[in-house]
TrEMBL record:
This is SCO6880 family protein. NCBIfam families: SCO6880_fam. Keywords: Membrane, Transmembrane, Transmembrane helix. InterPro entries: SCO6880-like (IPR049978). The chain crosses the membrane at residues 20-41, 48-65.
Length: 495
């Protein structure tokens, strides 16, 4: 490849479910079992056999009909039933504070964060480290704050080295003991203007010319409208080797891993990696629920003060979940889930527009989830995917092989070869959340997200009836979507 030719990336593949066509393993079993049952019933009554065939066809069709992102009728019904159950129980409404019925009268985080506890420890450098303990599933999360390098005016070779460093860091996560998954959260918001005002206004002399004074004051006042801030978080969620291990001991062991993890991130395009303290994590969650608080937090930091915010007060006073948005403390949020990854080759800047700050949006978070697979599991999956692609390509004979089947076979074989040569296999997904001031602004925000997803060559779908869960998953708290489902992974794969 010539030195001036930008490098491309691609070959993302959705794992093909086992079974015939799009039926899945369970759907294939239902179809074959239905055929056998129909034959047996026909020995008794032809009319009963006809009814059995119709019922089996309807049931098989429910397994076969799928959306572009692989969901069938039962997946959709499960989401609708879960929403109806939560609404009947009153779980879609949340009220906290001294006048609520919540124990303690504090503003505790709601929903999936209700059973999360905050632990504090120190890393080998003596820095305070906040560790989130997900008590329901006995998982622990480290949260790292990163200062990411921009790609403007950066040589292509340097960007390629950063991408290679990021790929190597993800591949090494497969050997990280007890790791359940990782996430990168990129949060953008308008600049509060507190830091600029603190730097400029005290330096204006009383005898300064009126024109100079007015120009500086205008710059300070216009800064929150024209400027923005970007924060990058990396979360790593672990499961301890022993179920009854003391949480404080687990937190200390995880903190000892921070230097090695941070060193890998520095080679992937970050200038500084620091662990977040308990107060930092609580402030990030509080600002997500009430964006207006961000300016007060920034003012306290500029004055050198510690807000002292505790995890038990990081939640909203009022929250209401609807099928298409999430209301919390006079703000409105809407979330989207990844439906389809790019089909062709893309450049390293493919997500740039999606990650950039967006005007008219109070706060935007893009969360990229990564699930590194162990080497044994990766080898089994890529080999099974290769066999499935080979079977589909050769089912109609070589002369009738269509272009899509041939492309899938080529991609599957390339993935198998790369995995055999030592490359890691990682499952990934993307969630996006935008927060605005009024409900009317949600439609404008949705239009902007649609434009940005088109430039990113991905497809996002609204998280209908799961808005509260999607909003919480995009927070830098280490919630992994695949760890929150009630259906085991084996059954989900079979569907």
């Amino acid at each position: 490849m010539p030195a001036d030719t930008p490098r491309t990336y691609g070959n993302w593949r959705r794992p093909r479910p086992p079974g015939l066509g799009s039926l899945g393993l369970i759907g294939t079993g239902v179809m074959l079992g239905g055929i056998v049952l129909s034959l047996l019933v026909s020995l008794i009554s032809v009319r009963a056999a006809a009814v059995t065939v119709v019922l089996v066809a309807l049931l098989t069709g429910a397994f076969a009909l799928r959306t572009p992102d692989g969901r069938n009728v039962f997946n959709t019904l499960g989401v609708r039933m879960g929403w109806s159950l939560r609404r009947s129980r009153g779980s879609t409404v949340y009220v906290s504070g001294p006048l609520s019925r919540r124990p303690g009268g504090r503003f505790a985080p709601p929903g999936l964060l209700a059973k999360v506890a905050m632990l504090e420890t120190r890393d080998p450098s003596g820095r305070r480290v906040g560790v989130l303990h997900h008590q329901g599933r006995n998982l622990y999360t480290l949260v790292l704050g990163c200062e990411a390098e921009g790609i403007s005016l950066v040589d292509t070779d340097q960007v390629d080295r950063w991408v290679g460093g990021w790929g190597g860091w993800l591949a090494r996560l497969a050997q990280e003991p007890g790791l359940r998954g990782a996430a990168v959260v990129v949060e953008t918001a308008p600049e509060s203007g507190v830091r600029l005002a603190a730097e400029v206004l005290p330096r204006i002399l009383d005898e300064a010319p009126p024109l100079s004074r007015s120009v500086l004051e205008e710059v300070v006042n216009a800064n929150p409208v024209t400027a923005s801030e970007t924060k990058v978080y990396v979360t790593l969620t672990y499961q301890p080797p022993r179920a009854r291990q003391r949480p404080a001991a687990v937190a200390g062991q995880l903190a000892d891993r921070i230097p090695g993890l941070a060193a890998g991130l520095v080679g992937a395009g970050t200038t500084a990696v620091v662990p977040l303290t308990p107060v930092d994590i609580a402030e990030s969650v509080r600002a997500a629920f009430e964006p207006a608080v961000a300016s007060r937090i920034a003012a306290a930091h500029e004055d050198g003060e510690d807000t002292g915010l505790e995890w038990a007060d990081a939640g909203p006073a009022v929250a209401l979940e609807t099928p298409d948005h999430y209301e919390h403390d006079a703000s409105y949020s809407r979330s989207w889930l990844l439906s389809l990854a790019p089909r062709g080759a893309v450049y390293s800047s493919v997500l740039r527009e999606l990650l950039m700050p967006t005007q008219d949006i109070r706060r935007k978070r893009i969360a990229l989830f990564y699930r590194p697979l162990p080497q044994a599991t990766a080898a089994r999956l890529v080999e099974a995917d290769r066999r499935a692609a080979l079977f589909k390509a050769s089912s109609n004979g070589k002369k009738q092989m269509n272009a899509r089947a041939q492309a899938e076979l080529t991609a599957a074989e390339q993935t198998a070869q790369e995995e055999a040569s030592g490359a890691g296999l990682v499952e990934f997904s993307i969630m996006a959340t935008v927060t605005v001031d009024t409900e009317l602004q949600l439609n404008r925000a949705e239009s902007l997200i649609k434009e940005q997803q088109a430039s990113a060559r991905i497809q996002l779908r609204p998280a209908r009836r799961t808005q509260a869960s999607a909003f919480t998953c995009t927070l830098p708290v280490g919630l992994l979507p695949w760890e929150l489902t009630l259906v085991p992974q084996q059954i989900r794969d079979a569907l």
